[in-house]
Amino acid sequence: MTDDDVVFPxxxxxxxxxxxxxxxxxxxxxxxxxGKRGVSAYLEKAAQRQIERDNLDELIADFDKVHxxxxxxxxxxxxxxxxxxxxNAGATA
Length: 93
Fold this sequence. Notes:
Structural class: mainly alpha
Strand content: under 5%
Number of helices: 3
Largest sheet: none
Number of strands: 0
């Protein structure tokens, strides 16, 4: 049985080396934050966060299909309660 036959959740299982292509500016910004030896770990965590966000987007889309979109006024009011701001907190022009 190979690793390809086993399903691992994000962040679990053995490591594998791959080649990725990044713009120079992105790579420089990462290295400034974590140094040369921290790039792989940084990208691993970033990929895990993106997977979590993608999964959440899918969950929200499924919820919206069943229940309809969220009431924007109710969302704004709850955001205000959480952040202690006005009901339009986070809104942009």
